[in-house]
Specification:
The chain has helices at 23-45, 48-71, 77-100, 106-127, 137-155, 163-203. It is mostly helical. The protein starts with 22 loop residues before the first helix and ends with a helix.
Length: 207
């Protein structure tokens, strides 16, 4: 089974619609609604097992909404913009929570935030909004690695057997995910500049 671009039918051309209330968009919203639940479980209840389960569910919906969108031709312009933004905000919010809980150090949060902050600044400069770029393959792999590594890291906080294995596996996924995050960020940065300069040449200004 394909994990990247799952549900894609060979030869089928997807056209982004203007639809708002699609199943993938609803799943994206539900995925982000899991963030406050995760924060409450970790910071207020110290329920790391349930918090890890919430992360697994959130990560699963990220795959499911993409599958449904491609399989049943429910791709939309809103979904194309909202899905990666929801992923980024969720990962950052989870990282902040884990820093506060003492699960990870501040450098991990910094490594997540810096590329996104640079991309946000470039997007606002050239477009005053979202640049509307397609998600790259390495960007999808990066997100998947981070979504797998984070619950493993939370599980490593539990008094259960093999916590060292969970901890090691978590940082393998997270390390590769952070590397992919910076590579994807660099590629997106170049794409924003190219698209922005083309727009400037056409319209006579950076915005």
């Amino acid at each position: 089974m394909k994990f990247i671009n799952a549900g894609e039918r060979p030869g089928q051309r997807h056209v982004d619609s203007d639809a708002v209330f699609t199943i993938p968009n609803v799943l994206t919203i539900l995925r982000f609604m899991g963030v406050p639940v995760f924060i409450w479980l970790v910071l207020a209840q110290k329920e790391y097992a349930l918090a890890a389960l919430v992360l697994v569910i959130m990560g699963s919906t990220d795959w499911v909404d993409g599958y449904i969108a491609r399989r049943f031709n429910q791709t939309s312009r809103l979904g194309r913009i909202m899905d990666p933004i929801a992923d980024r905000l969720a990962l950052i919010a989870v990282a902040v929570t884990l820093v506060i809980a003492g699960v990870v150090e501040w450098w991990y949060l910094t490594a997540l935030v810096v590329p996104d902050a640079i991309l946000l600044a470039a997007s606002l400069y050239y477009f005053h909004s979202h640049p509307d770029l397609p998600v790259s393959r390495i960007g999808k792999i990066r997100t998947a690695l981070l979504l797998v590594g984070t619950p493993l890291l939370v599980l490593a906080k539990l008094p259960i057997p093999l916590t060292e294995v969970y901890f090691t596996a978590a940082w393998i996924f997270l390390g590769l995910g952070l590397l992919g995050h910076w590579v994807a960020g660099y590629n997106y940065f170049l794409a924003i500049i190219r698209k922005g300069r083309l727009r400037a040449a056409r319209d006579g200004g950076p915005g």
